[in-house]
TrEMBL record:
GO cellular component, one term: endospore-forming forespore
Name by which UniProt lists this protein: CotS family spore coat protein
Alphabetically ordered keywords of this record: Capsid protein, Virion
SUPFAM superfamilies, per the entry: Protein kinase-like (PK-like)
Originating organism: Candidatus Galacturonatibacter soehngenii
Pfam families cross-referenced by the UniProt entry: APH
Domain spans labelled Aminoglycoside phosphotransferase: 189-262
Length: 331
């Protein structure tokens, strides 16, 4: 049963909706013009306009599809309902997420990333802070302070939970990694990488992971550009690789092939490779787990969070073996 609120939204588009069903925080619509996705916005129009300019750089590819915005009858990207809530409509394809254990699909995703990076340059926009990723030096400094704050909080507790005991036991190991990454970043040519990215208006997808790459009967489909911003594009490669490698126990051969596959399409210079290494050294997932604990109900921590922390600590040695092998020229 379609609600009156939904009907009001559909009426503002040149489509006939046949049926609808729920997607991830969205509504998928079967229409006379193909599948469409409707999503409520949590932000204002400047961000949508920027995303649309980025997507315009990618929409004519023969190798992949993207979730292009569909304008309403007034040729506007944003549609309002009777409550003044904001919505956008996007083109959509039925498909499945890539298989994180399937090497050919993983390498296809890396290839697609390199392709979109080649095209996501010189986007028309003002290079304001709202359209840029935070400086990695600032990000590391902020995370380091947060980790120390959490460590002090846990250390000063008289009665510690199992999670807190586990956290304290592994903190020093991960702190060594934060120090190593921060020092390497300070000595690296990151400032030049960032300056070049801003000057060339290079755009990062911002959330490139296996959830946002679908295999469809029409070919690969790349979605969710909601977090795209100007920045050092190797950050996308790092984010994708880290999540895949964690699920594949830091497979050295897979990691090498991922870097080689990207490099074949978009050249990775020595500064970019070092920056990729620095991002891997920094224990980002440890910070995420710790930060989630600190900002949640500390009196009760799910067992799975303890297991995540234990698994992360166990994998750290394997991760370093991976880094020492794959980045042998930079260690």
């Amino acid at each position: 049963m379609v609600s009156d609120k939904e009907l009001l939204i559909w009426d503002q588009y040149d489509i006939n909706v046949i049926r609808t069903y729920k997607g991830r925080q969205s509504i998928i619509c079967e229409t006379d013009k193909g599948l469409r996705l409707v999503k409520e916005l949590g932000f204002q129009s400047p961000k949508i306009e920027f995303q649309n300019r980025v997507k315009k750089l990618l929409e004519d590819s023969k190798f992949y599809h993207i979730d292009c915005f569909v304008p309403n009858l007034n040729e506007e990207l944003i549609t309002r309902d009777k409550d003044e809530s904001l919505y956008v409509m996007k083109e959509w394809y039925d498909g499945r997420e890539i298989d994180v254990r399937n090497k050919s699909e993983i390498l296809l995703a890396v290839k697609l990333l390199a392709m979109i990076h080649c095209n996501m340059v010189n986007v028309e926009c003002d290079v304001t802070q709202s359209h840029r990723f935070e400086d990695l030096n600032v990000e590391f400094e902020k995370h380091n302070k947060e980790l120390k704050k959490i460590r002090n909080f846990v250390r000063d507790k008289n009665k510690k939970t199992d999670y807190e005991i586990c956290f304290i036991s592994v903190f020093e190991m991960f702190q060594e990694d934060t120090i190593a990454a921060t020092k390497r970043l300070e000595k690296s040519n990151y400032a030049k990488l960032l300056e070049d990215a801003i000057q060339k208006k290079c755009v990062c997808h911002g959330d490139y992971n296996h959830h946002n790459i679908l295999i469809t009967k029409n070919g690969p489909f790349i979605t969710n550009f909601d977090k795209c911003k100007i920045g050092v594009q190797v950050s996308d490669l790092y984010n994708f690789m880290r999540k895949i490698l964690e699920k594949n126990n830091w497979d050295i051969n897979l990691g090498k092939e991922m870097i080689d596959t990207y490099h074949e399409i978009k050249n990775l210079n020595s500064d970019e490779l070092e920056n990729l290494l620095i991002r891997f050294i920094y224990p980002e997932k440890f910070w995420k787990i710790a930060n989630h604990y600190y900002n949640s109900n500390k009196a009760w921590t799910p067992v799975k969070n303890i297991e995540k922390l234990q698994m992360l600590a166990a994998q750290n040695k394997i991760k370093w073996e991976f880094l020492n092998t794959v980045f042998t020229d930079y260690i």
